[in-house]
Amino acid sequence: MNKTDLIDAMAEHAGITKAAAKKALECALIEIEGALQKGNRVSLVGFGSWSVSRRAARDGRNPQTGKTIKIKAKNVVKFKAGSDLSRAVN
User: Fold this and answer.
1) Are 55 and 76 in contact (CB under 8 A)?
2) Which among 41, 67, 71, 63 has a CA at the least distance from the CA of 53?
3) Lesser CB count within 10 Å: N end or C end of the chain?
4) What is the C-alpha to C-alpha distance for residues 22 and 46, in angstroms, rounded to an integer?
5) Full pLDDT tens readout for the chain, 90 residues
């Protein structure tokens, strides 16, 4: 399922227009992104939670040449599925 498919499904399920569903989805994604940028955790009970974690700088290896390279430190987004979501897919 891609973003367009999700918007279509949201519109049909909620009985709203596709434009309204698109705006709602985009607003939700903007708010989640904003919270993560501030370093906050976003939790939707039963569905899951997003958090930001710091990945330290490290040495890596170029698979083509075998040469050692430096990989910069960076922030990464982590998602942990909630219990309801986990049960739904198992």
Assistant:
1) yes
2) 41
3) C
4) 23
5) 999 999 999 999 999 999 999 999 999 999 999 999 999 999 999 999 999 999 999 999 999 999 999 999 999 999 999 999 999 999
